[in-house]
Amino acid sequence: MTDKDLLGRHQAVLPDWLALYYQDPLEITHGEGRYVWDAAGTRYLDFFGGILTTMTAHALPEVTKAVSEQAGRIIHSSTLYLNRPMVELAERVAQLSGVPDARVFFTTSGTEANDTALMLATTYRRSNTILAMRNSYHGRSFSAVGITGNRGWSPTSLSPLQTLYVHGGVRTRGPYASLGDDEFIAACVDDLKDLLGHTRPPAALIAEPVQGVGGFTSPPDGLYAAFREVLAEHGILWIADEVQTGWGRTGDHFWGWQAHDRNGPPDLLTFAKGIGNGMSIGGVVARAEIMNCLDANSISTFGGTQVTMAAGLANLTYLLEHDLQGNARRVGGLLIERLRAVAAQVPGVREVRGRGLMIGVELTRPGTDQADPDAASAVLEAAREGGLLLGKGGGHNTSALRIAPPLSLTVAEAEEGAAILENALRSIR
């Protein structure tokens, strides 16, 4: 069966809004390390990792073995029974999170993790008002869509929450872009203070330390620490959405919130994606008094299931023992500098940004700040032709390339991908 045949079947039974990359969508059949192969046998260097989910490597033997061995014993029993792998992974996540007196609840996705965090925060605070960042993305559930500040991923304005959007998630656009870092933070803090003077007390601020779907944008280090001082005066909780930034991807830190840690860790932390290396794991970490605030029964049928927990334990162990955070810092730093050198010679590249192996390349119409989604699509196609898979994102319009390979990326592979991307970028001149 050809990809065209499979595409026809896909379109006949799946929703029209289920996006597919590329004019001729491809079927990925297998992978190894940082590479994947399609149904025709073509090999690609994977710089997107299943949307930042294949965090360590494709077909990592340690994870594959753990999944196989656990599946041979028992795959699933639900949270109604004691579950050793779930307890063991929860212990490790709680210790790594930095959240004091931490409790961990496992879900099956980042969307569900954020949904749970919102339920906890609004219940604890007895408020359904949420502060969120402009250009943000937090998932596709009804409540998560309601706090998403990115029009391209917000299919409805209906929501169980009242959402108020705060400045600061995008450093190089918006009314404060021309300010220096300290002045930028001060202006965003003043905006937050003003906003809080016009509303009933919110439950929480939810923020991605680096905005993922928004195109890998971020504020200056310390912004959320400065916000925290204001939030604390009002008893407002801070939810750090670490679905894309967690587990060392940014290189400099294990968690994205640690770039904003002057006033301590967040009250709640959500995670997903990379911890399972492709297996479906999400979760929430919160202080015990917040996690335990629910006054009704709750369980998770599939969150914490044994086979995914086994994968998470093996993957986390591999990541820590092989210092993949350090590798992300070293190899990511080289890759960013290499791409910035290329960008200086391509008029359509507005900015190369990011940290570690979380890199955004924003494309605009040359000589302007106007987003160029057609150019982003063209580069995506050209990179594929060269043997490289990338992602896309960005606010206002999808014009940022998203680069997030597995954290075990080698220097040689980084150079290989940069050379392919250079040729793809030069093709749009």
Taken as a percent bin, the fraction of beta residues is 15-25%
- Residue-averaged pLDDT, rounded? 96
Radius of gyration: 21 Å
Order of helices and strands: HEEEHHHEHEHEHEHEEEHHHEEHEEEH
Shape: globular
Tally of extended strands? 15
Give the low-confidence spans. none
Distance between the termini: 37 Å
Strand order of the largest sheet: 4-10-9-8-7-5-6
Individual helix count: 13
Question: What would you say this structure looks like, in words?
Answer:
This protein has 429 residues and is α/β, with parallel strands linked by helices. Helix content is 37%, strand content 16%. It is built from 13 helices and 15 strands. The chain has helices spanning 3-13, 49-52, 61-71, 84-97, 110-125, 142-146, 181-196, 223-234, 288-291, 306-321, 324-343, 373-386, 411-426; strands at 28-32, 35-38, 43-46, 102-107, 129-133, 162-166, 204-207, 237-241, 268-271, 282-287, 349-355, 358-363, 388-389, 391-393, 400-403. Strands 4-10-9-8-7-5-6 form a 7-stranded mixed β-sheet, sandwiched between helices. It has a 4-stranded mixed β-sheet with strand order 1-2-3-13. A 4-stranded antiparallel β-sheet has the order 11-12-15-14, with helices on one face. The longest helix has 20 residues, at 324-343. 52% of the residues are buried. The model has no long low-confidence stretch (mean pLDDT 96).
